[in-house]
Amino acid sequence: xxxxxxxxxxxxxxxxxxxxxxxxxxxxxxxxxxxxxxxxxxxxxxxxxxxxxxxxxxxxxxxxxxxxxxxxxxxxxxxxxxxxxxxxxxxxxxxxxxxxxxxxxxxxxxxxxxxxxxxxxxxxxxxxxxxxxxxxxxxxxxxxxxxxxxxxxxxxxxxxxxxxxxxxxxxxxxxxxxxxxxxxxxxxxxxxxxxxxxxxxxxxxxxxxxxxxxxxxxxxxxxxxxxxxxxxxxxxxxxxxxxxxxxxxxxxxxxxxxxxxxxxxxxxxxxxxxxxxxxxxxxxxxxxxxxxxxxxxxxxxxxxxxxxxx
Length: 310
Fold this sequence. Notes:
- Helix 2 (23-35) packs across helix 5.
- The chain has one domain (18-306).
- The protein has 13 helices and no strands.
- With 310 residues, it is mainly α.
- Residues 207-240 are annotated as: Disordered.
- Keywords: Signal.
- Residues 1-19 form the signal peptide.
């Protein structure tokens, strides 16, 4: 009888969850990736606008983003693995136990003062979590825009090919204006179908902490399917409809630039993308450390979301 009593008691006591696992890991990783689609969209739009400025006929940001598809696809395919590993288990992992092997007050949730893998620890050390997500996103950008990367070389070739074609059409147009191809020459980018149609994900894909798509409808194209947050979170000021703007340092160039000149300018623009993200997020530190990242924090909403996991 005593054995049955203890067995019954054991079955009624809820099991302690010692770490963020499974769905918790996937959902939190996806939430950060989803959050970063808006600032990354601003970075891509800024880069595309500058690249358009060094191309013949200035084809517009939408056309350039089409040429940058290898970059967008590579980011989408690699961003999840990098972000998950950076958070779990590189920093947050294991059970929350003190030096004596005891679980301190507040662990596993809602506020655990020991670095470990519980939702409470993620919340307590949110400043570190926010910095990990930011640094990992910048690292991903740096790797993809390195001139030695295959992705960069594909984008460069796409743009050089397009620039060559546009130069040919422009020269032909001087002699035979009526033979200009639709959408080229003096026609505005809005006069033909946007190449972004191939990037747009299904409307059912939610974007956490953002009430609208990021610039040029790139939000859902950049990230794996993120989780849906509560209505309170999605209606917060962090998810306002205001368009994020990256400060531009643009230099107008001669449209007759040689291929080598264009390569040099393209490299300068692309390699500035990690710093564009720094400006978009509000990181004004001069020594590589970061402030509160006012535009890439999402602290109240993310803390609430993290604690929704057991």
